[in-house]
Amino acid sequence: MRLVLATLALLMLGTGAVTAQSPRRPHRAGLWGEIGFGPGRVRVACSGCTDVSAAGGATSYFRIGGTVSDRVGIGVEVFSFLDRAFGFSPGDTTTTAETATATVVVIWFPGRHGLFFKGGVGLAGGQFTIPGTAGADTSNGAGIGLTFGFGWDFAISRKFAVTTNFGAYVTAVGDVVLPGQRVDDVIATMYQAGIGLTFR
Amino acid sequence: MPGDRIIGDLLRSQPTERTSRAYPSKGLASYALVVAFTALLIQPLPAAQFDTLPRPNAFKAIAQTVVVNTAVNRIDAWGRNRYWARVGTRVWARNIRLGWAWDEDAFATNVFAHPYHGGVYFNAGRANGLDFFESVPVTIVATWTWEYFGETERPSLNDFLMSTLGGVALGEMFHRIGTSIRDNEAGGTKRTMRELAAMPFDPMGGLNRLFRGQWKGFGRNPAEHDPKAYVLRVGAGARFAKGLVNDSVARMGAVVVDLLYGDQFAGTYRTPFDVFSIRLMLSSQGGLNALRASGRLYGLDLNDSTARIRHQLAVNQRYDYVKNPAQSVGGQSVEVGINSRWRLGTRGYGIRTSFFADGIILGAIDAPGAGVGLRTYDFGPGAGVRWEVAADKHGARFFLLYGRVEYIHTVSGAAADHVVNLSGLELAIPIAKRLGIAAQTYIFDRESRYPDRARDRREYPEGRLLLVWTKAASKP
Fold it and tell me: Which sequence spans correspond to the domains of chain B?
């Protein structure tokens, strides 16, 4: 038994020594890009509204950037949400809602594992369309975009990873004016559960 | 936000300011209670000698912000019987379900007090050994938790952006100012006075030091204590402004404080906000009239540091607050541009130029028919450019010509696009060793464009004549 323990101890010491001697290669370095998609849910609030409208939809995102350090990446992220059966009131499904954000994001990996947290701020756009008798009525808005999220990077190789994302995207796009309705100071918050492919 | 409740009392001298419901509790009494609660988290250390930098402790930093938020909320709920502070699980569930909204608080509350108190959160991180970047998440978490769980009102998106972005900017600058004021190598009354003087800038840092026994213990000063190069200029005198009180030119008293901490060209970029500038203006009309600040987030020398003509690429984070009876404008922005300096002769003279383009993440501007509910100003993002030409000696400007154009697109308030122009000329003439006379002109004009009404254009020129005292250092 003592021999086994001594052997194990030597092996552990030896492994530690080898680890300590080998130069630590940066875990993450250089440029990276990621593209992904997934289901999402939008929640639209406005000034003076006593309740919110919510609906499901499809989301996609693309982000590209570089690394500041082994644990911090910085880049630009473009995110979009589409729901063809949206409504500002209960039971209404006549509106097509499209929102997008373009934000500068910082991605922080707290450890050498794949967990990461993300935050960013930038621009947002929103388009709400209702089909009318003489074509479609559209309301466009632009404003502030904000994003938070977390996820996990499953590294397949040094150059490629599959990434899960859970994010919130806040878009403040101003007033939405459509026939028969005016919604002031719209804030649309999208929640996304997505999966992406990351290339480094 | 908890902090506005204290700062807001100081701002009540502004006659047009609506009293915010998110306003201070019992001023110093509230602070004292917060201090007492906070103290419970801090292990008092009686050591006479201490390490310059505390060991990083993110948990303690976040815990202190939770204590501050909880204490302020409970003081307002139990002590002042404020309805907005009566939170509970139903309110929290509703806030989570409904999510973000724009609030109706006063301009000074949203654009000055929130950033100041975001800075308090930020400095809970800095006071517990976290670096600049590590303190940012502390600010975000503390602000987010207050917005969702500290008030009965729905979480406010403008509060969140103002408190986090402004909190980071003001927090880091105030942390460095506080560290410069404090002196770990001094003793006696002078030491205590320095600790007290730093408190308004960095209360969390001061309190942590107090309960660690560092107000009396000795230690080495951290690197931020001595920025190597700085210019502090304090001026007092008369201000002449048209349109501020009425249509004619009105005369009033003014105090203008300029601080340049560090110098872009004194060394290479080290850390965020290793170089920053602040301008504070107090006036007998309206109290705090202006607080403008800009800190370098990143800098890159574009040529040799020994060259006669230097150019540097810089990314700055800006904070702007202008509030007087005639105009209210402010916000959080990031700018990218080039700073240059032409060295003239060997006696320290030079010409400096700057040209920057900026993105306004969240701006605020008053406008006729603006706002939401009781709010009288708009919120929105935007963009702009800024330029300046200056002549200096060892970093101290004695001539400055500047201009700035900003565009703000409203996303909360009246549907509008605002264009703001700022320009000015400033001269400082020395008359004795540190004393001088400064003459400053400043023109603010703005145009608001609405889809459903006529354009609104206004202009506010003003001049200032000040007796200035300048202290500067420029070390290699």
Answer: 4-223, 227-473
**The model scores a pTM over 0.95:** no
Q: Which residue has the tokens 């479609």?
A: A136
Residue B415 sits at the chain A interface (C-beta within 8 Å): yes
Whether B261 contacts B275, CB under 8 Å? yes
What burial class does residue A38 get, using C-beta atoms within 10 Å of its C-beta: 0-12 exposed, 13-18 middle, 19+ buried? middle
Q: Identify all chain B residues contacting A109, using CB atoms and an 8 Å cutoff.
A: none
Q: If you average pLDDT over residues B92-111, what whole number do you get?
A: 90
- Identify the weakest region by mean pLDDT among A140-149, B27-36, B379-388: B27-36
Report the half-sphere exposure of A119 (CA within 13 A, side-chain side).
13
| Closest residue to B361, CB basis, from A121, A141, A184 | A121
Contact A137, A176 (CB under 8 A): no
Q: What angle do CA B318, A63, A148 make, to 5 degrees?
A: 60
In A110-169, the residues whose Cβ lies within 8 Å of chain B are 117, 119, 121, 123, 141-144, 146
pLDDT tens figures, B408-435: 999 998 888 999 999 999 999 999 889 9
Find the largest Cα–Cα distance for chain A.
89
Q: What angle do CA A171, A176, A181 make, to 5 degrees?
A: 140
- What are the extents of the domains in chain A? 25-199
Protein fold of B227-473: Porin (2.40.160)
Burial zone of B186 (CB within 10 Å; 0-12 exposed, 13-18 middle, 19+ buried): middle
Sequence-ordered list of residues with C-beta below 8 angstroms from that of B450, at least 6 positions apart, any chain: B369, B414, B415, B416, B456
Name which of A36-40, B107-111, B263-267 the model is least confident about. Answer: B263-267
Structure tokens at B242: 């048209």
Q: B157 falls in which pLDDT band (50, 70, 90)?
A: very high
At B418, the amino acid letter reads H
The per-residue pLDDT for range B27-45, each reduced to its tens digit, is 444 544 554 555 455 444 4
> Architecture of A25-199 per CATH?
Beta Barrel (2.40)
d(CA B1, CA B22) in angstroms, rounded, equals 7
DSSP state of B460: E
Instruction: Identify whether the C-beta of residue A128 lies closer than 8 Å to the C-beta of residue A178.
Output: yes
